[in-house]
Design brief:
The chain is of the alpha/beta class. It has two domains: 86 residues, 2-Layer Sandwich (Alpha-Beta Plaits); 121 residues, Pectate Lyase C-like (3 Solenoid). The chain is built from five helices and 15 strands. The strands form three sheets. The chain has a six-stranded mixed β-sheet with strand order 5-7-9-11-14-15, with no helix packed on it. The radius of gyration is 18 Å and the shape is elongated.
Length: 233
């Protein structure tokens, strides 16, 4: 599958891709990975990526930059495997998994997150909403059984999963899944709707490249398809 096996090897694992980097400097390896992705954008778009960096010593700035680059391409970096204690600690500080264990909350797999929402459903009254008055940054995850209202931005690399609707009074550029328990009436609203990945119930879409001035939009299911329309009062 990989066109440069000396630098990068790619294989499928459960619902993710495992990318193993070969020897070389970090800038060269990161560049080779990005080139490989850009050559096959459709293959990688929407993927969850686990990255094996072997003995590379990476700090927060380097891993954060890589995660942002991947997010811009619709790819979610959820795990970093490393022989370096420094890199492993960096990944943990960023909320990334460092082991290929069974799917769980830490790995943020869609199946596990949906299970977490179901388990929390009994704790959330009908029409309950979680109010978050801050920016949700890269690596942060919000899981709630009801509606989620965010006054702030959702940055690339952040994840929001809700049993109900999601309203963002700001820019939405991370991963969002509304109606995670199968609620097809759930909606996603944002002052700027540019998610790296958007799901409502069982439907999924990647946001197209935006042109022109951003405007408030609402995404919903219509005839089984995800559509985005102007968000008006």
């Amino acid at each position: 599958m990989d066109e440069n096996p000396a630098a990068i090897q790619i294989k499928g694992i459960r619902d993710s891709l495992l990318v193993t980097l070969g020897s070389g400097t970090w800038p060269d390896l990161q560049s080779a990975l990005v080139v490989s992705i850009d050559e096959r954008p459709a293959f990688f778009r929407g993927a969850r990526l686990a990255l094996n960096v072997a003995g590379q010593v990476l700090h927060v700035a380097e891993l954060s930059a890589l995660r942002d680059v991947l997010s811009e391409r619709g790819i979610s970096l959820w795990a970093v495997l490393s022989e370096s204690p420094v890199t492993e600690q960096t990944a943990q500080n960023l909320g990334l998994a460092t082991r290929l264990s069974k799917p769980g909350r830490t790995e943020a797999s869609p199946r596990a997150l949906s299970r977490a929402v179901r388990e929390a459903a009994d704790e959330a009254p009908e029409n309950a909403a979680l109010w978050v008055q801050q920016t949700v940054r890269s690596g942060q995850k919000i899981v709630y059984a009801g509606n989620v209202v965010i006054v702030g931005e959702v940055n690339p690399g952040a994840e929001i999963l809700a049993g109900g609707s999601v309203v963002v009074w700001g820019r939405l550029r991370g991963v969002v899944h509304a109606g995670a328990q199968g609620d097809e009436q759930a909606v996603v609203c944002a002052l700027e709707l540019s998610p790296t990945q958007l799901r409502i119930a069982g439907e999924i879409a990647v946001s197209p490249e935006r042109k022109g001035k951003p405007r408030p939009e609402i995404a919903r299911l219509k005839d089984g398809r995800l559509v985005a329309e102007p968000w008006q009062s």
